[in-house]
Amino acid sequence: MSAAKFIEGLVAAMGADAGVVERSGTTAVADVSRAGTRRVGWYQIQGHTLLPCDPDVLQSVEGLSHASVLLSDTDFRLWVDGNGGSVVGQAVMMVAGAAGLQLVPPVAGVHLLDWSAKADLELMQAFVDTCEASDLDEAEVDMDDLDDAAIALLTDDGAIGAYASSRPFEDELPFGDIGILTSPRQRNRGWGSLAVSALVRDVLMPRGIDPLYRCDPANVGSHRLSAALGFEIVASLTVAELPGT
After folding, report:
1. Which of 10, 68, 103, 174 is the most exposed place for a label (fewest CB within 10 A)?
2. Is this model's pTM higher than 0.85 or not?
């Protein structure tokens, strides 16, 4: 699926008009999926800034809309701070570029994980125990909510050296949101690229799922990995939460 189709689906999921990103400007839109959260998203998509928000705060956010002027991330953050809010997350969203993905050739040691198997759960738990809490949070790895589509790249002693998984991004979009986590002992050795490539080739492609790669723009290593594999940015985002109940 093309980047254009992903953007079209993303915009529709926010409740915005399909063609809004084809023109310049800034548009606030009530996003029912954010109802009750008091959250506002800043999305830079093509030449447009979209501000999907909790319908309860739409009236306040609408003051940022403009027919032709883009709202910068800096100005959005200043507005959030001025309204007593706080930034709760940021990311870039990437899909396969026009030239397609440049996957790393297959290697030995790839293991398709099956969470109905006790041995795989124990293998994963042992891996999680070696990881920092901050790394687990960034990769969105939770032993109580493991992604169904998951692979491990095993070391010579049978431990997990790198883990990659995917979960559906939106029901209407056949994209899998990829998470990647590499053991501290295997970092800077290309294991992350191997794991993502194996996940795409062995799990997502056979299921007809297109890969979506999200990462914090401050995570230089993750950004470099995705770019090397042929992912290209289709949207940049910042999410904030406003005070109130």
Report:
1. 68
2. yes
